[in-house]
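On clarity, I found the account of how folds are encoded harder to follow than it need be. Since the whole study asks how a given chain folds, the encoding of that fold should be made plain. For illustration, here is how one protein appears when written out as sequence plus structure tokens:
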Amino acid sequence: MEKRMTSGEIAKQAGVSQKALRIYDEKGLLKPVGYSEGNYKLYDKNSLIILEKIVALKHIGFSLEEIKSNLENDNLSSIRDILENQLDMMNKKIYELQKSAKCIEASIARLDENPDWDDIADIIKKMEMSQGADERRWYAANHAADGIEWYEKIFDSLDFTEEDTVLDLGCSYGLLWRKNWERIPAKLLVDGYDIHGNWADDFYEYLEENRGTLPGEADIQVIFSNLEKEETWEKIAKKKYSKIVAHYLLSYLNDKEAFIRNVAKVLAPGGMFSVNFYSEDNMEYDFWEKTIADIGLDISFAIKRRAERRDLAADFVNLLSENFDKVEIVLLPCPLSFDSAEDLFERLLRKYPDSRKYLEDKKEIILKYFDEKLLRGASVTVDMEGTFYHCYGV
């Protein structure tokens, strides 16, 4: 008969306390296999194996609930799968902690003399939005169907010349310039404005290291100043700019109307202001509405979403038209390619965040539909366009 161990003996062999053993028993992770005549809990060799697995999983970051689930599904996953999944989860946690640290650094860097918690909340909210935008850029780059760098497309649409003096508002990481470094016109002059504690700090350092490799007499400066402060615009107004760029910025501003009015004042006669904000991406909405209908789902939420975006885009064009003589809509193709049903489903959720619960409830039939589409080809391409507004002064 196999020798059985008391709780003290098995705890000693596994290097855990008897208190931990009692907790594992209460949580349903490790039950005794029997009791002695004196009513002491007894364990066998298999109990020790389970206990050693509990200890190992706990040391690499599993919660007790996750360990219990893992033990219950022990035959469904290999050790490699378990470790790889845990590593992926821990890397995500590290990334989230790094983002939180960045938000704290930004808050400290942007503090006024007498800050309050509303100021801190606003700073953190905007930093989280900035981090989200960065994640979306990498997401788009990873799924790009045409293989063309997004910021090359934007750069080409702006038609820069040697005579241009450019105001880059919210220059951030400087991707418009970094991704087109060797194509910058020889005498182009750029004033980039942003605030400390943002990606612009990195761009500033990049310029210090690489300014000497700019083509010809071109020059780019980063000026740290808050675009929602009047003194910043007093400084900007000392010059006129032939081209002004404000891409992926307006979501962070509290007073968009004042910002647009200030831009109009510093745009040189015949100059052009490029901005993006609300838009209605007809190509992608067409794709998803057809997909939702083909699956057999209620399409009303998708129609409502498109109408909401259309109204917001119309309001934004009206705002621009009040401040500029002419507003042109420029559409840049940015098709995305997906090779898994889960990725397609995630994109669907991104497009209709207000309908997440409904879509999650229908996830099984949606994934089945996507799997069938993927069987007919190596990937699924979603055609879409990025919308930019080119505004012209007198």
